[in-house]
Amino acid sequence: xxxxxxxxxxxxxxxxxxxxxxxxxxxxxxxxxxxxxxxxxxxxxxxxxxxxxxxxxxxxxxxxxxxxxxxxxxxxxxxxxxxxxxxxxxxxxxxxxxxxx
Length: 101
What we know:
By secondary structure, this protein is an all-alpha fold. It is 87% helix and 0% strand. It has helices spanning 2-8, 10-14, 16-38, 42-68, 74-99. It starts with a helix and ends with a helix.
């Protein structure tokens, strides 16, 4: 959805810095989870999950900027923000699970 919004919203698409930053943060979430998993130890995986959590917060912060600049509607903001919040909850749950393992 972030890619769709940044592609098709002409104002967002013109803001190259914000567009690229939110996309990088979004991809960073998945990339850090994958990289941490590849490390094959819970300690390293947890470290990368924390980095993924930071990227999730970064996406949420950038959504506020996009909303404040009227690049996205309130509905789009809420949907994307809530999706990021759900992602953070899943990552936190995974961290708790690995810490108790």
